[in-house]
Please model this.
Amino acid sequence: MSEILDGSCTIFTACNFFVKVFRYTYCNDRLRKILDSVEDDVFQPKDEESEKLLFKAMDDWRVVFRFYLVVCVTGISLWGVGAIFSDDDMALPFGYWYPFDVKRNPTYEIVFAYEVLGLLLMSIPHLTMDSMIVSFMVFLTGHLDVLNESLRGLNGSDHIDHETALREQVRCIVLYQKIKR
Model:
């Protein structure tokens, strides 16, 4: 049963990886447009309050990224360390079949390092692709917070003239349209 679980976990992880790579390759042009649009003037903070909101969103993203990084590193470490401390003297992280005897030295050490290194190399693209999507979402939520504060400021401000209010409304509409894309 443990061989089936090991194999299915590996297969599902590989399938997940290939789906992500396919989606990133397929959506590459759209991702480039998003990255290019980040440089637009409308996304630059207009005052100190909007800058604080954006920095708060970036700090939240850093916390999520660090947590995800710790979870990934811990999972990989436990997978490798679990094989070392198992009941079997020559256990490997995965229950793969090899066409040679893996119980001999130095073959065991080489195969063990190969499996742990392969796991590490498979986790790096997962981490970067997932964190890129999360960073897009945080960027958008930060700018939605800025837009919300700008609209809230328009609602309760009697001390600005009609022209300034009109320019601020147009700026909010342009920001909303850019976020929506």
User: Anything to note?
Assistant: The radius of gyration is 25 Å. The chain has a mean pLDDT of 82. The chain has five helices and no strands.
